[in-house]
Specification:
By secondary structure, the chain is mostly helical. About 75% of the residues lie in helices and about 5% in strands. It has a two-stranded parallel ribbon.
Length: about 160
């Protein structure tokens, strides 16, 4: 496991290897993945539906092959577990994403929250906190929630 993390850093985050913003791009991937992992743990239960959707989101959004996806998966889980604050992730995203990219991340958070067809109050609170840290409007918060809710039969708990 430690070797996998070291390989990820060596391949993607080592300034000597990376060029043309590649380091920043991979840091942003890791920050987004860590926030999504934080959400799966918000209700103290990571459902299989959430984890399956998360894996699919990461692969599709970042166009990763299976090896890179596995490395990002392991590293993001580790970062999310060891994080003391959401700020370490949201500050990277604020620096590297424009408003539409941040809104797209918010939409992914809502889709992930609704993946198990129930919305826990802890999940909603965490998404609200992330949206605030990303300086997203309340209107965008509600629009993304309603759009994700419309695609799932969701009950609130």
């Amino acid at each position: 496991m430690l070797q996998t993390v070291k390989q990820f850093f060596d391949c993607f985050l080592n300034p000597a290897v990376a060029d043309d913003g590649k380091v920043q791009h991979h840091k942003l991937q890791l920050a987004c993945a860590a926030l999504l992992f934080e959400l799966t743990a918000a209700d103290q239960h990571s459902s299989p539906e959430e984890l399956t959707l998360l894996r699919s989101m990461l692969g599709d959004t970042f166009q990763l092959d299976e090896q890179a996806l596995e490395q990002l998966w392991e590293l993001a889980q580790r970062e999310a577990k060891s994080a003391t604050s959401l700020y370490q992730f949201t500050s990277l995203i604020n620096a590297g994403f424009d408003y539409p990219q941040k809104t797209a991340l918010l939409e992914q958070l809502w889709k992930l929250a609704f993946a198990d067809n129930r919305l826990d109050s802890h999940e909603e609170h965490l998404i609200r906190k992330i949206a605030d840290l990303l300086y997203l409007s309340h209107g965008d918060f509600i629009r993304a929630k309603l759009a994700a809710k419309a695609t799932n039969g969701v009950r609130q708990v």
